[in-house]
């Protein structure tokens, strides 16, 4: 088995903040292999891919359709199990923990943003953003803390520039507003790592730029670690570092190589 480590000393770019260089990765997926069954055949999707991010780093993962980008992101966020390989959080292995421990990590450490927002249509934007904490607390716990949770949701919505839309339902929002709402919902549980799967994939380029501005602001202001999958070179270029995936393997890493 070839272990493909994503070596920070070799892959840092001039645009990467000095503080990020040569630090232990906050999150790392090492030597990941993953296959899916197709009838009687096993189709390999990831063939020893490795990916890591330091605290406060913003990395993008780019590659052709079917190269395994989403699968790698899902493995990293404990949404999917690798067949082979390991996922480390702050240097400690997390993919082999119990189901409940992984559920806890998934809910507390990771925030997820997807291409198609997945906001609940019958709830207002504010209620959508409050939902993760409503689910996390018991009914009584939520009832006791509802004012605090509401204020937290309002603060985050203000941070992503949606304070004027809090009472709107998703159908009354633009695509960019829905995605910023989905980002706010991912952030209310105060994740350390935001995993974004094609966050601009459903948006026109100018709205996509707004979403990238929002993500970059969160990364810069809050030191939020972001791993973003995209198929768009221009979007990928805005991260500190680009990881290129080809047929389930890391093809190359580094900002300059995607130009
Ligand atoms: N749950 C699944 N069951 C079976 N096959 C799957 C599953 N998830 C992904 N695949 C297959 O694995 C391959 C890689 O999928 P993945 O979504 O990771 O690629 P991707 O690079 O993100 O592609 P895209 O850019 O099109 O989203 C694809 O051929 C896909 O059909």
From TrEMBL:
Residues 27-259 form the ABC transporter domain. GO terms for molecular function: ATP binding; ATP hydrolysis activity; transmembrane transporter activity. Gene3D superfamilies: P-loop containing nucleotide triphosphate hydrolases. The keyword Zinc does not apply. It comes from the Bacteria. It comes from Fuerstiella marisgermanici. This is Lipoprotein-releasing system ATP-binding protein LolD. It holds the Pfam family ABC_tran. It is an enzyme of class 3 (hydrolase).
């Amino acid at each position: 088995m070839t272990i493909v480590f994503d070596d920070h000393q070799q892959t840092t770019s001039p645009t990467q903040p000095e503080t990020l260089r040569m630090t232990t990765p906050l999150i790392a997926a090492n030597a990941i292999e993953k296959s899916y069954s197709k009838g009687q055949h096993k189709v390999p999707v990831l063939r020893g891919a490795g990916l890591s991010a330091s605290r406060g780093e913003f990395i993008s993962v780019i590659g052709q359709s079917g190269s395994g980008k989403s699968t790698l992101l899902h493995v990293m966020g404990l949404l999917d199990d690798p067949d082979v390989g390991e996922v480390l959080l702050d240097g400690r292995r997390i993919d082999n923990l119990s189901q409940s421990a992984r559920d806890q990590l998934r809910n507390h450490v990771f925030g997820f943003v997807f291409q198609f927002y997945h906001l609940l249509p019958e709830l207002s934007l504010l209620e959508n953003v409050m939902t993760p904490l409503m689910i996390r607390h018991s009914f009584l716990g939520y009832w006791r803390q509802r004012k605090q949770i509401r204020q937290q949701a309002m603060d985050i919505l203000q941070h992503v520039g949606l304070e004027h839309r809090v009472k709107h339902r998703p159908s009354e929002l633009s695509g960019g507003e829905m995605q910023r709402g989905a980002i706010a919902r991912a952030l209310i549980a105060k994740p350390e790592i935001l995993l974004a799967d094609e966050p601009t994939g459903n948006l026109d380029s100018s709205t996509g730029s707004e979403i990238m501005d929002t993500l970059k602001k969160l990364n810069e202001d809050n030191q939020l670690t972001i791993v973003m999958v995209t198929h768009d070179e221009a979007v990928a270029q805005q991260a500190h570092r680009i990881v290129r995936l080809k047929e389930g393997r890391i093809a190359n890493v580094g900002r300059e190589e995607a130009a």
